[in-house]
C-alpha cells in the first residue's frame, strides 16, 4: 500500500524545488514512476491526484504543504475585464513618470520586440491545452507565441491561426519585414498524435508555412528513457484499439500500440526545458536584436522626449507644457 503522505508527498516537494518552471501534474506523475516511487498504473495516478489535492489544501507551514499554484494549469482561465477605477490624476502622473525615463521604459515594456527584423517568425504549437502553463513558464514573457490546439482544431481556429501566420510571412500589418514562418509542434506519441501533426503540416504547407515536429518523437523514447512511461489509463488503451490511425503507427513501432504523453519528458526537467528553449532559439539571431538595441538606444529616445516636453522642477514637478 502506498503511503502517500510519508513516502510520496516529500518527494514531490523535493522534485518541485528542482524544476526551473512549473511542471504539469502528469509530468510529476511520470517523474515519480521513473524514480520507482510509485508504479505506472491508472489507480496510482488517481491516488497521486487525490494526495496532491489534500497537500494543496493545507495551510502554509503545515508539514506536507504544497502551494496551490505549484503546478502549471492554464486549461481554465477567466475572460477578465478591467473594472477597477483609476483617477485621471494617476493616469496623467503615470504617463509623466514613464516619459521622464522613456528610453529605458521603451525597451523594458516590450515596444522593441525580440523578433523585430528577424528573418524568421516562430510559433510553438501544442497538441494539449493543459501544457500551455508549463510552456508559458519555460519562456520569458512575450518571448514566443504559444498556440494550444486542444486536439484536432476547429476550422475557424485553424484559419485564424493561418491568417495571423500569413501576415507575418508577408509582413502585412506587422510593422516588420516579411519572414519565413516556422511552427514548432509538441504533442503526444500515439496514433492520433503523430497523424495530427502530419495533417497540420499539410494544411500549413499550402500557405508556405513550415511545421517542425520537435517532440515527442520516436527517438525520444530511447534518449529520454520513456518506454516504461506508457500511458496506463485503460480508457486510453481502449481508445487506441479503436483508432483508425493505429495500423500505420503499429507498422512504425514494431507492431506495438501505445501512447506516451509529452508530459513524460518532464521526468528530465532540465533536458526538457533545454529542448524546448533551443528549438526556438535555433531560428533566432541575437546579433540582429543587438543592432536594434543600438538603433533604438535609450539616450536617443530620451532626447526625442525632450524635444516634445519639458518637465518643471520643484513643486508641480512633472507638469508638462
Shape: globular
Query: What's the gyration radius in Å?
Result: 24 Å
Proportion of helical residues: 40-55%
Poorly predicted tracts of residues? 315-321
The helix/strand series, from N terminus to C terminus, equals HHHHHEHEHEHEHHHHHH
In whole angstroms, the N-to-C terminal distance is: 75 Å
Record the strand order, biggest sheet. Answer: 2-1-3-4
What number is the mean pLDDT?
93
Please report which band the strand proportion falls in: under 5%, 5-15%, 15-25%, 25-35%, 35-45% or over 45%: 5-15%
Task: Please report the number of helical segments.
Answer: 14
Main beta-sheet strand count, sense and barrel state: 4 strands, parallel
* Structural class designation: alpha/beta
Extended strand count = 4
Characterization of this structure:
This protein has 321 residues and is of the alpha/beta class. Among the domains are: 4-56; 121-280, no CATH class. It is 47% helix and 7% strand. It has 14 helices and 4 strands. The protein has helices spanning 4-16, 25-34, 42-56, 88-100, 102-108, 132-138, 155-170, 191-205, 218-223, 234-242, 246-252, 269-281, 286-295, 298-308, and strands spanning 120-126, 145-148, 180-186, 210-215. A 4-stranded parallel beta sheet has the order 2-1-3-4, sandwiched between helices. Helix 1 packs across helix 3 (42-56) and helix 5 crosses helix 14.
Amino acid at each position: 500500500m502506498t503511503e502517500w503522505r510519508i513516502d510520496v508527498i516529500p518527494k514531490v516537494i523535493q522534485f518541485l524545488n528542482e524544476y526551473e518552471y512549473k511542471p504539469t501534474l502528469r509530468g510529476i506523475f511520470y517523474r515519480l514512476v521513473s524514480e520507482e516511487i510509485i508504479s505506472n498504473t491508472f489507480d496510482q495516478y488517481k491516488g497521486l491526484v487525490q494526495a496532491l489535492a489534500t497537500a494543496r489544501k493545507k495551510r502554509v507551514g503545515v508539514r506536507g504543504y504544497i502551494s496551490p499554484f505549484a503546478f502549471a494549469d492554464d486549461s481554465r482561465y477567466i475572460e477578465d475585464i478591467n473594472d477597477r477605477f483609476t483617477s485621471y490624476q494617476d493616469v496623467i502622473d503615470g504617463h509623466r513618470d514613464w516619459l521622464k525615463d522613456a528610453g529605458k521604459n521603451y525597451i523594458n515594456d516590450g515596444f522593441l520586440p525580440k523578433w523585430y527584423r528577424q528573418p524568421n517568425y516562430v510559433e510553438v504549437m501544442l497538441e494539449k491545452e493543459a501544457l500551455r502553463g508549463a510552456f508559458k513558464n519555460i519562456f520569458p514573457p512575450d518571448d514566443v507565441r504559444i498556440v494550444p490546439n486542444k486536439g484536432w482544431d476547429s476550422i475557424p481556429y485553424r484559419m485564424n491561426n493561418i491568417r495571423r501566420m500569413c501576415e507575418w510571412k508577408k509582413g502585412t500589418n506587422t510593422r516588420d519585414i516579411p519572414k519565413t514562418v516556422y511552427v514548432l509542434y509538441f504533442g503526444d506519441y500515439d496514433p492520433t498524435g503523430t497523424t495530427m501533426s502530419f495533417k497540420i503540416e499539410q494544411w500549413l504547407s499550402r500557405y508556405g508555412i513550415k511545421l517542425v515536429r520537435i517532440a515527442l518523437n520516436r527517438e525520444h523514447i530511447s534518449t529520454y528513457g520513456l518506454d516504461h512511461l506508457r500511458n496506463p489509463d485503460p480508457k486510453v488503451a481502449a481508445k487506441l484499439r479503436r483508432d483508425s490511425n493505429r495500423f500505420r503507427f503499429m507498422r512504425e513501432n514494431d507492431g506495438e500500440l501505445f501512447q506516451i504523453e509529452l508530459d513524460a519528458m518532464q521526468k528530465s526537467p532540465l533536458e526538457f526545458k533545454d529542448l524546448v528553449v533551443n528549438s526556438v532559439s535555433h531560428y533566432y539571431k541575437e546579433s540582429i536584436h543587438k543592432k536594434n538595441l543600438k538603433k533604438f538606444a535609450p539616450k536617443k529616445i530620451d532626447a526625442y522626449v525632450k524635444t516634445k516636453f519639458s518637465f518643471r522642477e520643484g513643486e508641480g514637478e512633472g507638469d508638462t507644457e
